[in-house]
Structures are given as structure tokens and as C-alpha cells.
Amino acid sequence: MGRIREPVTPAVRALRAAGVHFEGYSYRYIDGGGTGQVARELGIDEHLVIKTLIMEDDRAHPMVVLMHGDQQVSTQRLARGIDARWVTLCTPEVAQRHSGYQVGGTSPFGLRRTMPVYAQRSIAALERFYINGGKRGFILCLPTAEALAVLAATPLEMAQPSR
């Protein structure tokens, strides 16, 4: 769609407070459309659209996981990387309780509770990326290095190997 005046979400407030410059874009949210929908509507490579996943480890500790839109998380690699027996995606209800965001609109910024953030290592190589702004149909574009620094993200190699 196009650049818009940003809705005031917790993510927008957190980024403004941190002094991070970003641009907000609207897109037509479609249930199940995911990062592919964002990429098609904005005319960008899906690899630049970063998913925000809320996951839990075997001790029920929640975490935020950032992954390229065109890749999948290997929960085995993630679990090994954080010294857990296993990691699983939270149900939508549990994810909302941890993050404060509705699934499909989850942002890693302005979360309801503090959680560790793990980012696929290759995300750091991007100059800028697109990530949810805290509301369905609202995406942010921001400098990668600043975003990862604000999130205190731990880089991990956790992409699902290609077959």
C-alpha cells in the first residue's frame, strides 16, 4: 500500500523513546497471508520481512524469535543454541498473553513483558528490514543495526536447513 502516519502502538512508542528512526507502512492484512502478503503488497523481497515469533522452552520460559520471512525456524537448532531440551511455538492465546499483541500484529518492540530476543544470525547483514509495528496491517521499516541493538538480540544460526 504505502507510507502512512503511524498508529501509536507500544512498538512505535518504544522506538520513539529509543530514538530509532523508522517508516511505517500499511498493507491489507489477510489471515494466513504472513510475510508473503507484506512482501507482495510493498513490492519487496520477502527475505527483508522479519517474522516475530513468540516461543517457549522446556521450562515454559517465553522468548522472542526473529526469522526471515522466507525461512523457517529449526526448533532443534534454536534449542541447542539456548541450551534447552526443546522449544515450541506458543499458541496464539499464550503468545498474546506474553507479548500483549494479537497474533498477526506481534512486534518485538514494546512487549508486555521482558523476554530474551534471538535473531537469525543472517538478519544482521541486512541494512534495513521490515517488521510488524504492533498492529495487523501495519509494518515498520528500520535500520537493522539500531533495531537489533535496542532489542539486545542474541544472534543464532537457527534457520531450517534447505533440503
TrEMBL record:
Domain YbaK/aminoacyl-tRNA synthetase-associated: 37-146
Record carries keyword Lyase: yes
Protein keywords: Lyase, Protein biosynthesis
Protein name per UniProt: Cys-tRNA(Pro)/Cys-tRNA(Cys) deacylase
Pfam families given in the database record: tRNA_edit (PF04073)
InterPro entries the UniProt entry points to: Prolyl-tRNA_editing_YbaK/EbsC, YbaK/aa-tRNA-synt-asso_dom_sf, YbaK/aa-tRNA-synth-assoc-dom
UniProt similarity note: Belongs to the prolyl-tRNA editing family. YbaK/EbsC subfamily.
Uppermost EC category: lyase
Gene3D superfamilies: YbaK/aminoacyl-tRNA synthetase-associated domain
Enzyme Commission number(s): 4.2.-.-
